Amino acid sequence: MILGYDAKRLFHNNTGLGNYSRDLVRIISSKMKDSSFFLYNPKLGNVKKFSLENNMIEKRPISFFAKKFSALWRRKGIIKQLKNDKVDIFHGLSGEIPSGINKTGIKSIVTVHDLIFLEHPELYKPIDRFIYNLKFKKACQKADLVVSISEHTKKDIIKHYNIGPEKIKVIYQGCHPAVKQTITKQDKHKLQEKLNLPNNFLLNVGTIERRKNQEAIVKALTLLDDEKLVIVGRKTKYFETIKKIIDNNNLQERVFFLEGLTMDELATLYQMADIFIYPSLYEGFGIPIIESLFSETPVITTSGGVFPEAGGSDSLYVNPHDPQEIAEKVKLLRNNPILREEITNKGKKYASVFMDDYIANQWKEIYTNILKK
């Protein structure tokens, strides 16, 4: 079987969509060693987090025109190359497939992570909403199969695009193997010294943007004595909002900002943290929650939406707009070591549905079945 992938995010994105693409290809290729994996990359990549295995080949535009106008190649020109490469199935990993692929005989699958731009339009510019909606809607209509990364996103696809539920398959995403390893005390101590971190801290991981709602954690910090907070993520303009709250409440010595960590460093940080807090307003899934469960770090996250799918029945859930409730849940875990241990153990057990083998078997079945149709 020859499988083709839209690998733009795999080679060029360091965070969410890039991590999903790298983990998916890594997981499936290890299970389907007799298949070939063609990774279509519109231009030279700058992500150094992915190594090609023996059954993987990076494919780039061939003609001068395609190289010069790589966005057009990815949108339509790639079709000719897919035919020449005798690709059996093309998988759009981030809500897009090439225009006209449904007329080629090549089967197509599109993964849709979320429809945040429709559910929370206030977070996006009108032109961005228009373009995203156009691409996603067309991909869902033309693809042979739509894969959603959560039941919550599946409901949104049905609601906004009127796609029949039988055409949508839910497959949860995996996460980097680094978070599933046991980190030694020595490695934790080395990282603590390198980053100048406190012995005990709360952790949040994600781009510092309004949707991630880090201000709720910082406000909760004002209601907690002596708690320290580590926030890992790229800063946006929203950082100024966070900084103002910190300055107004003299929290400069209690909040630590980090970015640019390696995956191994991030995995170590997850296991060093006492509690992971994720009061995001909307997610397609919320992979940092899964990473925390594997790291045996108890989770406090948003009630409703997709979050219970990621966190399971034993994580703690809060109103993301209520810092008081967040603070109370932190105190609950601090003051109840037995409850904390119970939540940690059950969370690790729940995370088994996100293990590589389980996910790989689901994808193998999908690829095999779609070729039979």
Write the layout of secondary structure elements.
Layout: E1 2-6, H1 8-12, H2 16-31, E2 36-40, E3 56-59, H3 64-68, H4 70-84, E4 89-92, E5 107-112, H5 116-119, H6 126-142, E6 145-148, H7 151-161, E7 168-170, H8 185-195, E8 202-205, H9 214-221, E9 229-232, H10 239-248, E10 255-258, H11 263-272, E11 275-278, H12 287-294, E12 299-302, H13 307-311, E13 316-318, H14 323-335, H15 337-350, H16 356-372
Parallel strand pairs: 1-2, 1-4, 2-3, 4-5, 5-6, 6-7, 8-9, 8-11, 9-10, 11-12, 12-13
Q: How does this structure look, described?
A:
The protein has 373 residues and is α/β, with parallel strands linked by helices. It has two domains: 2-171, Glycogen Phosphorylase B (Rossmann fold), CATH 3.40.50.2000; 177-353, Rossmann fold (3-Layer(aba) Sandwich). Helix content is 45%, strand content 14%. The protein contains 16 helices and 13 strands. The strands form two sheets. Strands 3-2-1-4-5-6-7 form a seven-stranded parallel β-sheet. The chain has a six-stranded parallel β-sheet with strand order 10-9-8-11-12-13, sandwiched between helices. The longest helix has 17 residues, at 126-142. The protein is globular, with a radius of gyration of 21 Å. The mean pLDDT is 92.
Read across the widest sheet, the strand sequence of neighbours is 3-2-1-4-5-6-7
What is the assigned CATH homologous superfamily of the largest domain? Glycogen Phosphorylase B
Largest sheet: 7 strands, parallel
Structural class: alpha/beta
Annotated CATH architecture of the largest domain: 3-Layer(aba) Sandwich
Number of helices: 16
Tell me, briefly, the overall form. globular
Total DSSP E strands: 13
The top-level CATH class of the largest domain is: Alpha Beta
Rounded to the nearest angstrom, the radius of gyration is 21 Å
Helix content: 40-55%
Rounded to the nearest angstrom, the distance between the terminal CA atoms is: 15 Å
Mean pLDDT, to the nearest integer, reads 92
Q: In percent, how much strand structure appears in the residues?
A: 5-15%
Unreliable stretches: none
Count up the domains: 2
SSE order: EHHEEHHEEHHEHEHEHEHEHEHEHEHHH
